[in-house]
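Collaboration report, partner site 2.

Our partner group contributed sequences for two proteins of shared interest, and the home lab folded both. The records are reproduced in the order in which they were received, starting with the first partner submission.
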Amino acid sequence: IEEMAGIIANLEVHKPFRLVVNGIHICDYESDFTYRRDGKLVVEDVKSKGTITRAYRIKRKLMLAVLGIGVQEVYDS
């Protein structure tokens, strides 16, 4: 709906990101959604209690440290 209304653009579902440190591929992160809002990239992940794992927390930190991208979390009740 937001894409059709022109609020967001370039909506992608399950976009992969390669996380490479010093030329070594560490892991991949797959977002639930990516899109542009006001020209800025938004990476969004829908989380519940059971999906906030140790691996997820590490990948979220790597996204910020390696790519400079903060992951926006949306909580599913």
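Second partner submission, folded after the first:
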Amino acid sequence: MTELVARLGLPEGSRALLVTADDFGLCHAATEGVLDALAAKAATSAGLLVPAPWAREAAARSAGRDVGVHLALTAELPRYRWGPVTFAPSLLGGDGGFPATVADLHDHADPDEVRRECRAQLERAIQLGVDPTHLSVHGGALFAAPALFDVVVELAAETRLPLRLPDPADATGYGFPLHALADEHGIVRPDSVRWSSRGALLSPEAFVANLPEGVTELVTRPALDTDELRALAPDAEARIADLDGLLGYDRLTSALDDAGVAVLGWAALRDLARRGT
């Protein structure tokens, strides 16, 4: 039994799944796609991309939803930019907005400006009416440098919000023990993380059969198939496929039910973090 399963009061040997729809507020197509997935109960939670252009619309339409803050310090789409919500010169790329890559960010990011920016993104979400359920990191930008990882761990600990970390199997290349450091600060996190980009929605039955014991998060980025999305996102097809896969959710729902897998939202983990038990 994992510690998280025990703390959640689930039976020994339980498997549970969070389904998160990220990049909420990226653009109109992504905003509508995430809302469709939430309305269909195909996604249990969403991750709001606060600096992105459609964040205000997304927040305004998410009342009562399980929404966390998807902290962003990079803007990887080549023809579509977003940038800091604070005055943060060290967080700017050469062509406006955030840097396009994590490597570029790490070349010049000032940890103090990163700290102010992350706090401001969380505060902006709250000002927009969101009651954040969790924190995640866009593109893993805060995980590859210890000084920046300290920022997000400090923020999660202070606000008592759960945090998505890389799956333990993917974390060996970072050069420092992310999970152990987060655990030292009492950060609540899923036991494992799976990505729709690795085909999780193509065969729901196989995905469910291979879920490990504990709480797993499935990360998706659903979006409508629109000219806007195809113009701005080179990975538009993958985002469209995520929405199609989620809205064809009956197969996944049936597989989860048949296997006795519990379905959770991030709010359950937030409540646990704030109880401290």
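Feedback sent to the partner group on the second submission included the following. The longest strand covers residues 15-24. The chain has twelve helices and seven strands.
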